[in-house]
Amino acid sequence: MVVQAFAFYLFAGILVTSALMVITARNPVHSVLFLILAFFNAAGLFVMLGAEFIAMILVIVYVGAVAVLFLFVVMMLDINFKDLRKGAMHYIPIGIIIGGILLFELSMIYSYWQFAPTISNIDLPTDQFADVSNAQALGLVLYTDYVFPFQVAGLILFVAMVGAIVLTLRVRPGVKKQNISEQQARKASDVLEIKKVTTGTGV
Amino acid sequence: MEELLMAFIQDPWSFWITRTLVYTLVVIVGVLLAVAYLTYAERKVMGAMQRRQGPMTVGPFGLLQPIADGVKLFSKETIIPSQAHRVVFLLAPMMLFALSLVAWVVIPFDKGWVLANLNVGILYLMAISSMGVYGVLMAGWASNSRYAFLGGLRSASQMVSYEVSMGLIIVSVLLVTGSLNLQEIVLAPRPVWVQFLLFPMFIVFLISILAETNRAPFDLPEGESEITGGFMVEYSAMAFALFFLGEYANMILMSAMTVILFLGGWLPPFGITSLAFVPGIIWFALKVALILFFFIWARATLPRFRYDQLMRLGWKVFLPFTLVWVVFLAGTLMSLGALPGQVTHENLVQGVEVEVEKTIEKAVKDVESALGLDASKDAEQAPTKDEQE
Fold this sequence. Notes:
Number of strands of chain B: 0
Strand content of chain B: under 5%
Radius of gyration of chain B: 27 Å
Number of helices of chain B: 15
Shape of chain B: globular
Helix content of chain A: 55-70%
Number of strands of chain A: 0
Largest interface: A-B, 28 and 34 residues
Order of helices and strands of chain A: HHHHHHHHH
Order of helices and strands of chain B: HHHHHHHHHHHHHHH
Structural class of chain A: mainly alpha
Oligomer: heterodimer
Shape of chain A: elongated
Radius of gyration of chain A: 29 Å
Number of domains of chain B: 3
Structural class of chain B: mainly alpha
């Protein structure tokens, strides 16, 4: 138990610290790197909860794909961040107000939260999955009970992808592109003509 | 070995810790030795392919050459460019190297020979290999050099592109095995026709791991003819050696992954049971060596891809092909009832009978409780049942 508590405080401590560093770091690339560290430690916490499937998916999707592209973009930006920070003081009152409202709402929720009296009678949905690993358990509900939301989520992502491509696609005339199938289909007889030229006559 | 340890340490907790440490050390030293002699093998094999001898001077047949190289790199000075971002610059090679070692935790070298038998082993491997791109990207950015930056960007887009089709290939293997655990993937039965269906995926996977490890003919991130040395251009001495070790350890790791997914891991080849007297780890090592030979062979044979050709291959050829093949494979397996744990006609009939019995029992109980029979027993449960329905 001591080891688990130690591991929990290690992951949680690094997670909170790196989350703080994301918003306080001066260099945006450092911010993204701290964000990745935060994702990684969140995955560690998921593993400790026994949700190893979610942990691995978090690392594969967020660390391995989303954050790479994010870092990619941030690295290529050529923005003077000192200029950007000049106006930051301007927005501090609004930020404080929003933060205060959120804190108030959260404290209201936690102080007045009540469980329904019948809660102890409800069959927990995890009962039937007690003897399978959580990857299997997720698959069993995701592709049966929740197949419609799952498909809708997939469709939305697909539409977003198509939309992004349509919005950024430019048709530029006059650009020479390699068409490999065309190259493969070309025969010597299509493009070469062999002529016998007798000396002194020219073509 | 365990008995020897047991003789010295009685306390089970410290015994467990010592055992884990010793095994981890054995794996790390083994991987590093394999890396050292992979560089030697690469130079020898490429030498033979180009009618040269390769290293011959240090030791018999040049066998001590990797050690000499290591000592040379170790004794050199680490130069940090004055414009570099110091911390990130030094962190990048360490991260790449550490990640290439961490992944070995889940690799089963033989039946039961695995440090951590994770249920999500293959996902863990995917996660760790997708982290590898950060080492390269951080190195490229922190060097504060145009060449290094270009190399880092190239590597990032290349690795992200090929990971997509690799993920789909892994899905197709999982459709056959029905488990994310690497040992179960190896042990899952595979009829010949299934192996036949998986064969195109094996070829695509082989090509994808070349791109994933930034090896020739996909070594654009370090293409020396255009961007000198790519992301490694500013590194020297041990920092460079860490990149080098990481790259070769990743090559071996990806080969091990291919062997586990497609070539049956530690099992004797072609299911010949009379060869089972040879220890599994020998078969595993031989199969990994076969894939590594393919890596070197490709490097000695093929010219480097152009960047747009690389992207075209990843997104316009591999991705559609693997996507269609996953659907095709899933459909074939399903129609033949060969999916792991698939509901066939027999167990469907059984299951329906059980369900019918359960429903009848429940209905009888509901009627009894509604009529007030045995009310004391069901009084607490009745309201919740009504709510749920």
